[in-house]
Amino acid sequence: MSVSAFACGCADNSMPVAQLPEIDKTNPLLADWDTPFATPPFDRIELAHYKPAFETAIAVSRAEIDAIVNNPAKPTFANTILALEHQGELLGRIEGIFFNLLEADASDEMQQIALEVQPALTELSNDVSLNPELFARVKAVYEGSKFGLSKEDKKLLEDTYKGFARSGADLSDDKKELYRQYTSELSELTLKFGQNSLAATNAFSINITDPAKVAELPDFVKEGMAMEAKSRGQKGWTVTLHAPSYVPFLTYSSQRDLKEQLWKAYNSRALGGEFDNTGNVKRIAELRLKVANLLGYECYADYVLENRMAENTATVNSFLRELLDETKEYADADYARLNDYAHSLGFEGDIMPWDWGYYSNKYKQEKYALNDELIKPYFKLENVKAGVFMLAEKLYGLKFAPREDIQVYHPDVTAYEVTDDKGKFMAVLYLDFFPRASKRSGAWMTEFRGAKVVDGKETRPLVSLVMNFTKPTETKPSLLTFDELETFLHEFGHALHGMLAEGKYESLNGTNVYRDFVELPSQIMENWATEKEFLDLWAKHYETGEPIPAELVEKIVAAQNYLAAYANVRQLSFGMTDMAWHTLTEPYTGDVEAFEKQSMAPTEILPAVDGTAMATAFTHIFAGGYAAGYYGYKWAEVLEADAFSLFKEKGIFNREVSNSFRRDLLAKGGQEHPMKLYVKFRGHKPQTKALIDKMQLGKEE
């Protein structure tokens, strides 16, 4: 653990050395790492190392905070704000490893450790944010002269001060105690919520032994189900609630009874039963409201949105309503069209949610002669990866070299050294593609370490992409669906945000930006998925080597906005129910399912189904960082639609545009307000019209 921030090297030369506790260097989490680029030595880390490492690192952080608080010198930017930015390095390193692996390669033992250490981490966080002497020093610097501070320094100072104020530092002693109670319980409940959601996802499966019930399925679906059954010691074919299993089965199977079971199980995860999250949902919402009220806000959304690009609740609600008003009639038309199509095939009654994937896929095949089986042979995972790397090189000059000497946390993971066109080391990138029981569902980017500069020495980031793509089978390599290609590009956009960070302060670099801005770098990357000029460079048939046919690319482009209105309204429904939970001004004591039906009623397209609710497994808002922020996905879609239009105008590989995007947006992270950064790149503020135009609504007959 470096203590250089306390050992001198600053203009006032007045910061005392922290009296650090004894550090057990035999624990790999606490030792100096003699690894390539100081990457985590995963092969040396055992479960038994985590708890003592956390205990030591927490003690180190407390000593570092004490050194700042007890400094007799006048508070300055260097001895207070800069010292706060650099303290906690050891703890951050351990948290980065443990909590990332808790998402990607968890075990029952790790989940137990998380429950044991979380209270101590929350207590430390509260002890820092609620420390009156520490806040007094921060406030003195904030209210003092800013002479000699750079724009980046001033942003760090502003964020530090606001961080304390928004974490209860200005509260009275009795209210500080309440804040501690609420946030401590919140940290435990959100952790438990995520664990319940994962357990409920893993708990359900359907084993099929009748060959007739899987005969119609594409080979890749059957083979995946057969592998799943084999891994469980079962005969036949097994479908689970994990996306690579769940989605294809609903898409290709005509077995309505099985699909109904599967859909209802997925959409009632943790809604009662052994892993019930209904109480957690209501209590988390209540505690967030209590925290917001303590800090002077009417509701939790008001508190959150003060630090967002949208800035307030009224703007978000207006934004969501505007998009809904512009697209709802087209979404209803999407449903009516699909219903009519199903009737033309002999279906009776109205199609239900578990029918949607099947009939939308059949209609898509008929109208566009397009399906996953046609596309997947051209999207072999290794080729897709090469294509994504190629795109990063064309846009930003990045190169990716596999490094087998860098330790990984699971055999499925691969590590790459990333350099720029001048040969400068930019990052280590970890890629983790396939689902497993120890990994939560979905796809995400994270960091084991961010970018920063300390005492003139630059530290580059360690970035990880975790996904749940279709596994290779015994007869075929991993062949991605078009959706999985888009997911890869999306998460890789987040990775670029981290890998191209250029700034002094880790807390202002990479994806450390306003939550409704963070999805712009990721969502803009999805646009290349339908660009023929890009696909032609790498999309080759995995067996014949033939390039993807021009007519197939044209079909993909033609189908790009297929059911766009429906998809838009579905996403709006998630954002609106999120806002409903977090604009509560009184604790909700009623039924979770009933609350959701009411909050989603304006966006309802498909028939509602009793006994289901998404809230109890909505980890983004109840266990992640998207509370009162899920609208950010649609917000970012507006940004990316407007931003990508410049690439379309100048050329999708245009280095002038990509250099501007890198310089003005990706490299800057959170060093400036995102609207200023966006306008600097694009020349104007984004407008909702860009997204509406992109969806080409009403063009589907």
Describe this entry's structure for a reader:
There is one protein chain. With 701 residues, the protein is an alpha+beta fold. Among the domains are: 4-170, Orthogonal Bundle (Neurolysin, domain 3), CATH 1.10.1370.40; 204-266, no CATH class; 376-563 and 633-695, Neurolysin, domain 3, CATH 1.10.1370.40. Helix content is 52%, strand content 6%. The protein has helices at 47-69, 77-86, 89-104, 108-129, 132-143, 151-165, 173-203, 219-231, 243-252, 256-266, 278-294, 300-305, 313-344, 353-368, 372-375, 381-396, 482-499, 520-523, 532-535, 550-558, 564-582, 592-600, 619-622, 632-650, 655-666, 674-682, 689-695, and strands at 205-208, 237-240, 399-402, 414-419, 425-432, 444-449, 452-454, 457-459, 462-466. The chain has a 5-stranded mixed beta sheet. A two-stranded antiparallel ribbon has the order 1-2. A two-stranded antiparallel sheet has the order 7-8. A hairpin with a 2-residue loop joins strand 7 (452-454) and strand 8 (457-459). The longest helix has 32 residues, at 313-344. The model is unreliable at 1-13 (pLDDT under 50).
Q: Identify low-pLDDT runs.
A: 1-13
**How widely separated are the two ends?**
64 Å
| Secondary structure category | alpha+beta
What's the helix count? 27
Radius of gyration: 26 Å
Largest sheet composition: 5 strands, mixed
Helical content (DSSP H or I, runs of 4+): 40-55%
Order the strands across the largest sheet as they lie in space: 3-4-5-9-6
CATH topology of the domain at 376-563 and 633-695: Neurolysin, domain 3
Envelope shape: globular
Known CATH architecture of the domain at 376-563 and 633-695: Orthogonal Bundle
Task: Work out the number of β strands.
Answer: 9
**Multimerization status:** single chain
What is the beta-strand fraction? Answer: 5-15%
Task: Report the average pLDDT across residues.
Answer: 94
The first-level CATH class of the domain at 376-563 and 633-695 is given as Mainly Alpha
